[in-house]
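Notes, Module 5: Reading structure tokens.

Key idea: the token line is not a picture. It is a compressed description, and you learn to read it the same way you learned to read a sequence, by spotting repeated patterns. We will look at two proteins. The first is printed below with its tokens.
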Amino acid sequence: MRAVTLSEPRTTQETPTQEGLSRRTLLGTAGAAGLVLGAAGGAGVAYAAAPDEATPLTSVGADAVAFHVKHQPGILQGLQARGHVVAFDLAAGAGRAQAVALMRRWSGTAERLMAGQAAGQGDTGIALDAGPSSLTITFGFGHSFFAKTGLEKQRPVGLDPLPSFSSDRLDKARSDGDLWVQIGANDALVAFHALRAIQKDAGSAAKVRWQMNGFNRSPGATSHPMTARNLMGQMDGTRNPKPSEPDFDQRIFVPESGSSSENPAWMANGSYAVVRRIRMLLDDWEKLTVAAQEQVVGRRKADGAALSGGSETTPMDLEKMDAKGDLVVPINAHARISRPDQNGGAAMLRRPFSFHDGIDADGAPDAGLLFICWQADPLRGFVTVQRKLDRGDALSKYIRHESSGLYAVPGGAAEGGYVGQALLEG
């Protein structure tokens, strides 16, 4: 067992209390119209999740997230300070039997680590002395997984390949993959420990295809809970869909009952994750004045309020004019184009990480956003919004999409079961 020196872990559930959503859950998933930053395809508006509730730094390690829940962990929780995303390809000759064994191993390891325990026999001790630190581990299946396991008939229509977009400069070696794993925690060593355990568990069944690292602001770094900022310095997440909204589940999760060609029964309570590595051209962006940056985004940099006035949460007035008769929120402003009411109500839950992978030879930072968004239907969510952005988003000049992936993420594992069991044993 991994030693836990803090108080007994506080388990964070994703289910509502009798009085409605808990403050922690609501803060963790509340948000607003932040940067879509190139939603690769889907009918949802891309908004970033708000940071988890600020807590005293001494208590950060004690927070635990339950593994056996209705929706897999790592979707409804707030932004975590450290993240890793990794894709695997099944080894040559590996099929359904190997996939079953692998998902059993991965699920068992995830359950132990998220409870603050050791990974298992031969644990590396990387996170020794730390609590679970809100660790979440999430698993998904890519389009290519189904042919390799003889499950083509179970592949949902939602996994059809995403269309191409004009801002795409995709590296195929860092895109797609049979299996996808998202890891998040509020401690860097806890997150890396989980990444290493998942990689070791893959054994001879699967090989890493690509892996990326990300980060967000640490809990307790601000005096009160507030919307996160991205590496452009903009508030990112003001209009994220909230669980309190009546159509939240309909937009984000596959229905629990019923089976169709679009969503087989094994996807009940699941969601689709679109993952994009979006490079921010920060040298070009930082040459703009603050006023010019605000025109590109459509929101004030200082507080996230719309240029039409009010506070961060004040609805944007799309028709407001200035003294010259020009729209206060430019027609090509990112926040205008990506709004749900400008995209047939399309919405998706954005839960990204920033990244910085060093300095290029020309001195430019290799930095940006690991864009991760969740929706019940990628075509109606991500694709719809990204097509709209592709036709004239002012922000597109300052970003570049460098990798892409789409994954079917089934619902949470039942007690004693493993993620994907209904698919692999159905």
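Here is the second protein, with the sequence above and the tokens below, as before.
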Amino acid sequence: MNLEYFIAKRLITARDFKSSISAPIIKIAISAIAIGIIMMIVSVATGIGLQKKIRDKVSAFNGQIIISNYDSNNSEVTLVPISKKQDFYPNFKSVPEVSHIQAIASKAGIIRTENAFEGIVFKGVGGDYDWKNIQEYLVEGKLPDFTKSLNEDVLISRFLADRLNLKVGDHFNTFFIKEEQGKLPNSRRFKIVGFFNSGFQDFDATYILGDIRHIQRINKWSPDQIGAFEVFIKDFDDIKTVGDKIYEKTSSSLDTKTIKEKYSYIFDWLQLFDFNIIVILAVMILVATINMVVALLVLILERTQMIGILKALGANNWTVRKIFLYNAFYLIIRGLFWGNLIGISLLLIQQQFGVVKLNPENYYVNQAPVYLNLGYIVLLNLLTVIVCFVVLLIPSYIITKISPVKAIRFD
């Protein structure tokens, strides 16, 4: 039998333990542990969730790595075409980390209705376009199909539709300005088959998705000429390494750019969340350990006579210290239990019902996203237990200074 554990268990279950002077302080310590783990779980789950959600949104509408021509064009419009006949298309066999590659082209235009007009970028896509990335952002209607003959179907954002007073099934005219000066613009009539809502103002206010063959005809390109390739990879965390590999495997006339480089301002902003999460973790663990130190000191002072008796009976300092460390460990586990229960419950409620709303103009999402991962939760709990336990070794050292004779007389 483990003597230290047996004595600690008897102390915990004793009636006078619950009605002692230390009872309020112990409750505060347990509450501090619980609140700390709640804050840590929520901050990590929502922080990482927001990073992943925004990252996935940017990837869905742009790909993760873009292969295009070298040019000085800083806009989203394709000026110089590239050939679709490349060694890496349609399967990038030389870079196994690539999961999908698709051809796109874009052209600036103006949507004109009876009452309004809006400048847009028509993004042309073909039969190789992976609509699974866009599917979750479809809010009404259906996705277009460009695998067959050329058609007039387009996908437009809810934002643009509201500004132009359009609905699913409506037709509208779009005018594309020619590069040659003095020539009349090309006109195309499109039909709306669906609305998307990305939450990104830059995308929603600009893009419409249609058949790439319209751009090829307007620009007088051949069927093999496109604007760029969008590449998707298996693991986003490897985007820098895979981007370098793709650059090496493509022609010297082609440039590659990751979305981290293209939208550096977004990803720089997202990196700030890592710092915020670290600060929250540090503060919460500090508060929890301080409360546990105070609780342990009170427990030691309250049981001074017991410590003296145990020492008089032959117990060494480490044996007595282990009794109180077991006691403290019990309090930590209680706090972690309630903290995990409440924290995970709050995250599940947010995940299912989206209670906490966010301003999409500032956060690019409509509600606080949640990323629940058992690994992160286990690590946070282990981190809390280890840090608290290590710090509690310091106040437990006071037991070594207690004299059995004085302790037995202590009142």
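Summary for the second protein:
- The mean pLDDT is 85.
- Residues 308 and 404 are 4 Å apart (CA to CA).
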